[in-house]
Amino acid sequence: MGTIGKNTTATLFLCLLLFPIVFSTPNDRLVRIGLKKRKIDRNNRMAAHLESKEGKASEAFLRKYRLHGNLGESEDIDIVALKNYMDAQYFGEIGIGTPTQNFTVIFDTGSSNLWVPSSKCYFSIACYFHPKYKSSCSRTYKANGKPADIQYGTGAISGFFSEDHVTVGDLVVKHQEFIEATKESSLTFLIAKFDGILGLGFKEISVGNAVPVWYNMVNQGLVNEPVFSFWLNRNPEDDVGGEVVFGGMDPKHYKGEHTYVPVKQKGYWQFDMGDVLIGDQTTGLCASGCSAIVDSGTSLLTGPTAVIAQVNHAIGATGVVSQECKTVVSEYGEMIIDLLLSKDQPLKVCSQIGLCSFDGTRDVSMGIASVVNENAGKASGNVHDAMCSVCEMAVIWVQSQLKQNQTQERILDYVNELCDRLPSPMGESVVDCNSLSAMPSVAFTIGGKILELTPEQYILKVGDGELAQCISGFGALDVPPPRGPLWILGDVFMGKFHTVFDYGNMQIGFAEAT
């Protein structure tokens, strides 16, 4: 017994030396977590492409979550599975255990679990490049053992649940359930600058029905108000990455009043928004409403391919040419115009010309893989789906031009140009860095107000000097109804607009960041 006691004491003393507490105490009862920021780099983007090619990640998660399946199946969609953390730029530090073991995590409003690498992760290379949680070093650890598995867009983690105290700023969340990751099957996690994820979404999407860290902060009375807020610093010259504030918001981070919208559905921080404008022109698809999710774990703004192609066209972005798209325009373009001019219902146009095999009850959104990544060897049914989707997008594009009283020739030229702007399966499009001044603003209608992004705010610069490359901050992601059409407003959007997540009143607020 004496030997065991001495060994335990020595182990805890060693852990105390290895994992010092580094958090400071705020003086205004707001809990501030400073965020670190890094630039998007070519190595990470190359890794993302390798992930896509080797694992065919985008096709896999579209199939698994039925993003281009039947309407009756679309309730099974899990947006967490679409997440790609490769370009994540903002990280903060937390501690787990007593004494504290420190980890760098993404504070992610688009998922709900907390996970970090486990000391029992023996066979994943990624675990050897990040600190690992050692339960034997914590005197507040409690075993759980329930298995856990989370599938992301570019990889997966698996492991088991454990329970321990989690330190966030100067708050200590007691008895927090979290995942010890024993397998990280992705190049993403190997070269990532973060160790794990701390989800700030709702319990409804929590794997294993684990109570999220944020819920326990509120339930244990650790915050003054059931509110947290994000300020992301988009100044590339500033070393300060931003701040997450738990318990309220810091007036220094924004100006004016917040525009609030109600949370539509608990799970994600999801709300209803209106039209998307390029300059002062409508893009059509969201004029009657779209859903949107605010997601701090996503770098880009993603939305329906039909709209992203219009944005890419307006900003001169170069994407992947879709042969199916040009074929539809060549063979059916004039017929689509004639049917729309004859006041036929737009949703039934594609079925009337034989490209869709149903009566127009389907939405224009479907799996992007079937639009921009169909191969000749695939089954004819899938090819037919691709042609149907392209037709539905073409109807949207033609409608927008007819509203502007354009000629038939100009409409067909415009739609052909949009075909050239369809984004790649990775959603990436490149623009000329010297053309930013000529690009239009892109605006979102939220809560009856127009929230506008300038080119300097929606274009991401990769690299420096002559080797610099400018990437469109817009990516394509198609989600069918009832959940879609859907936009995911990531860091590009949150960098411009200070964002408040009001859990008590089930609402989200936006104000111009300072």
Would you kindly provide a written description of the structure presented here, covering whatever features stand out?
With 514 residues, the protein is α+β, with helices and mostly antiparallel strands. The protein has three domains: 31-60 and 78-230, Cathepsin D, subunit A, domain 1; 251-307 and 428-513, Acid Proteases (Cathepsin D, subunit A, domain 1), CATH 2.40.70; 323-360 and 383-420, Orthogonal Bundle (NK-Lysin). The protein has helices spanning 2-18, 42-55, 57-64, 187-191, 213-219, 305-315, 323-341, 349-352, 368-372, 380-402, 408-420, 455-458, 491-496; strands at 31-37, 90-96, 101-108, 114-117, 142-152, 155-168, 171-184, 196-199, 227-232, 242-246, 254-262, 270-273, 276-278, 281-282, 290-294, 301-303, 430-431, 442-446, 449-453, 459-462, 469-472, 474-476, 486-489, 497-502, 507-513. Strands 2-3-8-4-7-6 form a six-stranded mixed beta barrel. A hairpin with a 4-residue loop joins strand 24 and strand 25.
